[in-house]
Each structure stands twice: as C-alpha cells, then as structure tokens.
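S.,

Sequence below, as promised.
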Amino acid sequence: MRQPSVALPLAALILAALAGCSDSASNSTDPHPELTGSVGAVTRDEADAALNALSLPTLLTPIGAGTGPACVTPSSTTDSDGDGIPDDATWFFTAPPCRFSYRGGTLDVVGGLRIQDPVPPTAGFGYAATLTALRASFTSGGNNPATFAVTRNGTRSLSGTVSSLQLTADLQVIRTFTGLPDAAIDESWTVQFTAESPLQINQPLPSGTLDVSGTFGWTRGAESIDLTITTPTPLHYNAGCTANTRRIDAGELHAAGTFEGTPGYVRVSWTACGKDPDISFVAG
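The prediction came back faster than expected:
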C-alpha cells in the first residue's frame, strides 16, 4: 500500500466539504464502535468532497458555505473557451479570508489548488486538479466545540457530457481525530454522476445520483486496513434541498474489509435531506 504524504494540512476541494457531526457509530452492538465511527466519518466526508468536486464553483466554495466569488483570486483568469474552467490557474487559500460559516460552526481552508482545462480551445465540463497540502478544518458550534481537519494531496480529474460526469481521484488524505492518532488514507475513487436534467456549462449542478467505487488504504497507529468502497444504493443529490448543507437525501456506501479481526463492512446510509447519515457495522 502506498503511504500517504505527511506534508499536510486538499482540502481541496478544494475544498472538501467537512461534516460537523459525531464520528461515533450508531450501532450499540458493534464490537469496535470507535473504529467503525472513524471509518464511517471519513467515508461520509469523502462523499461530500466528491459532490463538491463535480463543479469548480463548489470546489472553491463548498455547498452550504455561501455563494458569491471565491475567497481568493486565481493566479490567472484566462479561459480560452469560456466554460468557467481556467486554462491553467492556481489558488492559494488562507484563513481568513477563506473562513466560512458552515453547518453551525466554522470551516477554515488553507493550501493550494491548481486547475487546468484539459482541452482549452473546446468548452466542456472537465478539469484536471492538483491538490497541495489543501486542508479544511471544521470547528463545531456550541459550548463544547469539537475540531477536526482533513488534508488532501494528490489529483482529481473530471470529464463529462450533458447527461453525466465522471470524477476520478488519487488522493493522500490525513484526517485528525480528537485524542487519537491521525488517520492516513490512500484514496483511489471513481464517481459516476448521472444528472436528472441536462447539465449546462456555467450553471449549478442539477439533482442526480452518484455511484462511487474504489479503495481506501487506511492506516492509523497500529491499524492497517484495505477497504473496498461500493455503492449498493446510489447516493441521491437533491439540488432543491437548500435549507441545510447536507444535500444527499438517500443512498448507501459500504467500506468493506477486516476490522480488528472481524470481516465485514461499515455502512453509511443517507435517509433525508438535511440529516446526517447513519453509520453502522455489518459483520460477515
């Protein structure tokens, strides 16, 4: 397994969008609830990040973090074909100004993101992204705020037509956990997005489904797990869910492997707009 780089902290997403909910698993009979919750939290967050990465505007400002211009300007604004993807530009994020009100708390983004148009003379949906120490840090609200961070290094590429998009990711992810070692995740994902209405250049993403497949190489302390990611039920993105940053309202992801000697999978299940997904472990 390739070991993730530790010069961290993509957010790439950028940015990747971070979740502000508990990382504990919901199944009280789970023999290893902390590990289940941690793997489930990363799987959930990477699904959110993949959703944001389906368009450049939400890559620069995650869904739910506000609208308007990006918090920093790119190194170049040249866009030969007018499709909203610069020919070759880099953003260097700092916080502030890249500090957002997000899911009842605060999201800070720092690091570098390079975006290139794979075919500058021809308008399209695609880009090639390079994430360099892109770190998204989330602090929850309330009297006892919790903080965690995700740092991404690596590449993403997007291609598509008016009916669908395909996102591939080859990322080295570092995710912090309170009171525990950081987790290093070697992520190789492919996400197929099927739109419910025709995609339009320079317009927001319509509702549709995400089918995710790939692998996680998980390392944390003495833990080392090879995980296979599948989507038994496609994730449904609801573009009309505007009251909350959680826009996936249905679907299920599995992260299968051997957990502390027990084969099985972590199940992340979305059931409603605006609701955190349920995380549980299924042995077998």
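The longest helix spans residues 33-52.

Coffee later?
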